[in-house]
Amino acid sequence: IIFLDIVLPGINGFEALRRIRREAGSRDIPVIMMSGNEQATEQFYAQRIGADDFMKKPFSRFEVFARVEKLLDAEARPHRASA
């Protein structure tokens, strides 16, 4: 599972997510995007281009564990939410 912030040095998280989804070796890895920005449009946009979940900062340890559990199958292997 990849945790991907929207604000990154040199590239934004949306472009990084696009690149992850284009590559055959990474397109099936679940991605949880995160941001401290309160705009709901970021969440919509992230999911539209292939994020499996979105978390707003700050978040608790409980929230992180809950989001990860949603992206694990019965054998505790990561899987895409949309798959």
Average pLDDT, rounded to a whole number, is 88
What's the total number of strands? 3
Widest beta sheet: strand line-up: 1-2-3
What can be said about the biggest beta sheet? 3 strands, parallel
Model description:
By secondary structure, the chain is α/β, with parallel strands linked by helices. 35% of the residues lie in helices and 16% in strands. It is built from three helices and three strands. It has helices at 13-22, 40-48, 61-70; strands spanning 2-5, 31-35, 53-56. The protein has a three-stranded parallel beta sheet with strand order 1-2-3, sandwiched between helices. The longest helix has 10 residues, at 13-22. The protein is globular and about 35 Å long.
Secondary structure topology:
Elements: E1 2-5, H1 13-22, E2 31-35, H2 40-48, E3 53-56, H3 61-70
Task: Give the gist of this structure.
This protein has 83 residues and is an alpha/beta fold. It has three helices and three strands, in the order E-H-E-H-E-H.
Question: Which features does this protein show?
Answer:
single chain, 83 residues, alpha/beta, three-stranded parallel beta sheet, 35% helix
